[in-house]
Specification:
This protein has 248 residues and is mainly alpha-helical. The protein is built from 13 helices and 2 strands.
């Protein structure tokens, strides 16, 4: 978890990747050793990679606004939908995403700086609003839709896009959770167990993503999409396999 001073440090590094700890300390009003410790922590958590920040939090917050509004609408739609229809829709969307990832893969591995530095456009607002609707509607697999929007629409490579994706989902999740709580659609016991597993998995995966780079992330996404789609369409039974492993 980062605080306001961590955000200040990331801002300064975003503007100038070679700004010194002494210069940062004057702005943030902390001692130089304290700045060094915070920069070390941010590096270990994957927010800083070399002399550039992985997370462009300013752009992430702007993209999160239309996405969050859309997610609320999507959540209200999802409340009355049949579970089987939702699962089939997830599989179809994920397969479409895999085709997008495989088509011209270099577009996913390298960002476009000219897009990153531009202000948020009307097209991007509409795009992330629609992605937000999908996220509130299905949520599962929304990470792929967000990655596509951030990479192809905002010009970031997969590693930086993944950091922005995580922050956007972090922002909208409490909002749509309230919608599902109001409609009594949440099992808090199972939700807590799943959230713990998700946090542990996310910590491991984010470190691997930063260390291994965009190419590694791309192939992990492809494998997960294929496994999930195969399960939904009945080609394999992941649930049964996991249950047999747990029972052994």
């Amino acid at each position: 978890m980062i605080d306001t001073r961590d955000v200040q440090i990331l801002d300064l590094l975003q503007e100038n990747g070679r700004v010194t700890a002494s210069e940062i300390s004057k702005v943030v009003e902390l001692s130089i050793p304290a700045i060094g410790e915070r920069m070390k922590k941010l590096s270990e958590q994957g927010y800083i990679k070399g002399y550039s920040t992985v997370l462009d939090h300013k752009k992430a917050f702007w993209l999160a606004i239309p996405a969050t509004i859309g997610s609320v609408i999507g959540a209200w739609i999802a409340v009355d939908l049949n579970e089987e229809i939702i699962e089939k829709a997830i599989a179809i969307v994920m397969l479409i995403m895999m085709i997008v990832i495989l088509y011209k893969p270099q577009r996913w591995l390298k960002g476009k700086e000219e897009l990153q530095t531009k202000k948020i456009s009307i097209g991007q607002i509409i795009l992330f609003f629609v992605i937000g609707i999908y996220g509130g509607f299905l949520h599962m697999g929304v990470g792929y839709a967000l990655l596509a929007g951030i990479v192809l629409g905002a010009g970031y490579d997969l590693v930086k896009a993944n950091a922005i994706k995580v922050l956007i989902i972090f922002i909208w999740s409490p909002v749509i959770l309230i919608v599902f709580l109001i409609n009594e659609q949440v099992n808090l016991y199972y939700g807590l167990i799943l959230s713990i597993g998700n946090v542990v998995g996310a910590l491991i995966a984010s470190r691997l993503a930063v260390k291994q780079g965009a190419g590694f992330v791309r192939w992990v996404i492809i494998v997960i999409i294929l496994l999930t789609a195969a399960h939904v369409f009945g080609l394999i039974d992941i649930k049964a396999g996991l249950q047999s492993v747990i029972q052994q």
